[in-house]
UniProtKB/TrEMBL annotation:
This is Troponin I, fast skeletal muscle. Pfam families: Troponin (PF00992). The lineage of its organism: Eukaryota, Metazoa, Chordata, Craniata, Vertebrata. GO terms for molecular function: actin binding. Troponin I is the inhibitory subunit of troponin, the thin filament regulatory complex which confers calcium-sensitivity to striated muscle actomyosin ATPase activity. It comes from Chordeiles acutipennis.
Amino acid sequence: SSHLQKKRRAATARRQHLKSAMLQLAATEIEKEAAAKEVEKQNYLAEHCPPLSLPGSMQELQELCKKLHAKIESVDEERYDTEVKLQKTNKELEDLSQKLFDLRGKFKRPPLRRVRMSADAMLRALLGSKHKVCMDLRANLKQVKKEDTEKEKDLRDVGDWRKNIEEKSGMEGRKKMFEAGE
């Protein structure tokens, strides 16, 4: 068994080593990506935002302000359009991932086997932790007491209801009911 334990330990150690190697690789990749993004940002800014040279006269300053306002407006419109596109794309992504989730849910049913199972086990399987009700069927049976059987006997003595109805119907029946004082 010690040989098996050594093998397991070696496999675990190897797994740990691979995991740490993968994490280091991922960390360096993230750093590279961040550096590349920063360079891209600097290049974009250099291209689209040339350094300002402030003119001397008031009229030239006003012209510059008008140009800058126009530029701000066009950039803002672009930003809005980009945001709308992003929202649309995100919605499409959500819909697709929902479809994917739904498709994954439709798995092949395994062939079913007959299993002997108590009602308790069945409820536990269906309801999980919510299962509190005990399904001991014998416990739910009504206890029959002596008085109950007496009542049932009284009911039996009344006899068949059809006969009673026939006896009470017509003039003869009404006469009997009148005499009986019902």
